[in-house]
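User: My notes are a mess, but here's the protein and adenosine-5'-triphosphate's SMILES. Can you give me a structure?
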Amino acid sequence: MSEFPSAPAPGEPVPAVRTHGLVKRFGAQTAVDRVDLVVPRGSFAGLVGPNGAGKTTTLSMITGLLVPDAGSAQVAGIDVWRDPAAVKARVGVLPEGLRLFERLSGRELLLYNGQIRGIPREEVARRAEELLRVMDLAASADKLVVDYSTGMRKKIALAAALLHNPEALFLDEPFEGVDPVSANTLVEVLRRYTASGSTVVFSSHVMDLVERLCDWVSVMNHGRIVAQGPLAEVRGNSTLNEALLQLVGARDHGEEGLTWLGSSSA
Ligand SMILES: Nc1ncnc2c1ncn2[C@@H]1O[C@H](COP(=O)(O)OP(=O)(O)OP(=O)(O)O)[C@@H](O)[C@H]1O
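Assistant: No problem, the inputs look usable. Here's the predicted complex:
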């Protein structure tokens, strides 16, 4: 795998995330094509782009879940694929699909995660109760995860990802299927987390939310980064949605087709 072209200059802060020439192929398709992603430490960063742009695949390679075909990724200056254990100890992940231990209660899930992370039992119990309360899950703490709603699943998964107080959080579509009340709770928790200097990187299709929350944005299209930087720079004088449509090109499928659709057709 290729090396980083240069280490940060002396005095230059080490970014929370930095990838160089990251590539992932699935058969003949290059899903991620030489991606150089940078996220400064302490950012609330959005990774945006159309369906199939390569966001999930990129996040999976950065968090040690998927081996890249080429290139490299660093989290807090540590090479993910040279020292995956060190990186995994420093990051929290809310992956796509949310595979959880369904037959545990919410509280048991947190206690179990804490034990896996090697946190002392009493400390885990203290943090678990606090997270359950902040996430509005205290009343459902003894319910099995399999019986949780979509929003409750996101909240317990976020609680599990935060339990070991990671330096950086990677969230794949954290607000998908979450009601506005629960979304507010998630936002409050994440804002508090970044205010203390930790980093959040999340993928989303909800541009209004990215615009409201993020101070840093990376835009992907067809496996590549097509824009990246402070939100104000990427957005310019338009909304983020308008900027995104310009960057990735509005999909024009023409006037033809679907003539059968609608009540006026036979
Ligand atoms: N395991 C896989 N096997 C084959 N192709 C895959 C696999 N995972 C992803 N792909 C392909 O790689 C491309 C990028 O997928 P990816 O899930 O990273 O995109 P995305 O930007 O997260 O999309 P979305 O916004 O729809 O979640 C897509 O064309 C997808 O079909």
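The longest strand covers residues 17-26.
User: Great, I'll file this with my notes.
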